[in-house]
Amino acid sequence: MQRQKKVFWGTLLLLSIIWIAAGIFFTSDAFNGGSLGEDVTSGVKSLAGSVDVVLPAAYSPALIFLVTGLPVAALSLFFYSRNRRAISVTRSSASDGNIRRQTIAVTLLALIVALFIWNMRDVENAVRSTNSAATGFNLSVVTYPVRLFVTYVHEAGHSLAALLTGGQVQGFEVNPDGSGVAVVNGGNIALIAPAGYLGAALFGSLLFFLTNRIPKWTSGLAFLLGLSIIALTLSYALPSAERGPTALIVGIGFGVGLIALGWQAPRLVNVFLLNTLAILTALNAVFDLRLLVQNADALSAVGKNDAAQFSEQVTPLLPASVVAAIWAAVAFCMLGAAVYFGLIKQVGGELSSAVSEKSKAQTSEA
User: Fold this and answer.
1) pLDDT tens digits along 64-81
2) DSSP string for residues in 342-363
3) Contact 5, 55 (CB under 8 A)
């Protein structure tokens, strides 16, 4: 019975994802010039007018699919995870202590692997090479996608900050060389400018912390993260005359991968891969800020960099290099706090428990 319920909720979850993804795509400008989106918008506004509901002028037809699909997806995910846990309970009797110890061991392995990948020879230099012949496609098949993903998170951070502060997002793009740009209108520049670098650092740090503090929920975490990335990609990263397809490929690729990871992979595999991605993302963000401190006054492909814009428009008394240094310190503190509370503190707790248990055993023997 539990298996049948799992299949039912899993199927409903898949259908709701398809509903959201297909709806956003087919009502966007990328499909048939956006004519279908205009038809849907007109129909919804007519229906809303018949029940005396006034929709805003900038109403997006994609919201229809998000509003109707996300609640169903969340409900389906809840019951799917519940049934999956019920099945797992019958198969495993691992205690919370065992889960914590297994998570710590896998996290340490992920940390070693991430640092090994991070130190692969000439990877970052090749990504940032100004020589057009030395493109990112010559890089490691592991590191290069992560580099593009960090840029994706960076530009998504700018976009989300603009939306949260009342601005509008025309879209964002990721270039094959690892650079990117987000086109926004309005919003609070004081939050939008740092949201790229600090957003990537926060993403990696928070993902590392959550993965290690709630290891039982890593499957759901991976699934929701993948779903969010796909929704964000279809909303703001579709290719156009101005934007290439790289952001779409990165967003859909990582989104589908994370959904598959959360859907089918065992818990420890989720812990390992999420931790590896989190560490690499946070390290890339910190490394990018270190380079920004050294080149704070340099121009990017689209003009002034984030630190220079922030210095000019928000803190004119602080030079761009100082702004970048402050951001770098904040990013480093984020990563340090995530490692401490997500790993070091738990290791200390396990060691204290082991010492306490040994002391009790010796006392009882005496």
Assistant:
1) 667 777 777 777 777 776
2) IIIHHHHHHHHHHHHHHHHHHH
3) no
Decide: helix, strand or coil at residue 179: coil
Tell me if residue 158 falls in helix, strand or coil: helix
Residue predicted with more confidence, 172 or 84: 172
| Contact criterion met (CB below 8 Å) for 223 and 77 | yes
In whole angstroms, what is the distance from residue 126 CA to residue 1 CA? 54
The share of the chain scoring above pLDDT 90, in percent, equals: 12
pLDDT at 299: 53
pLDDT: is 14 or 277 the higher one? 277
Q: Element (H or E) spanning 84, and its range?
A: helix 62-91
**With 0-12 CB in 10 A as exposed, 13-18 as middle and 19+ as buried, what is 287?**
middle
DSSP summary character for residue 60:
-
Phi then psi dihedrals of residue 181, to 5 deg: -155, 145
Region for 205 from its dihedrals, namely left if φ exceeds 0, alpha if ψ lies in -120 to 50, beta otherwise? alpha
pLDDT at 202: 93
- Among 34-38, 51-55, 137-141, 277-281, top mean pLDDT goes to 277-281
What is the spatial distance between Cα 116 and Cα 122, in angstroms, rounded to a whole number?
A: 13
pLDDT, tens digit, 9 for 90 and up, residues 252-273: 999 999 998 888 888 888 889 9
Is there a contact between 233 and 20 (Cβ–Cβ < 8 Å)?
Answer: no
For residues 24 and 62, the answer to whether their CB atoms sit within 8 Å is yes
Between β-strands 299-300 and 303-304, what pairing exists: parallel, antiparallel or unpaired?
Answer: antiparallel
Do residues 263 and 7 lie in contact, with contact meaning Cβ atoms separated by under 8 Å? no
User: Domain locations in the chain?
Assistant: 1-93, 96-365
Give the per-residue pLDDT at 58.
54
Alpha carbons 340 and 346: distance in angstroms, whole number:
8
Q: Can you read off the two tokens belonging to residue 163?
A: 């939306």
Rg (CA), the chain: 23
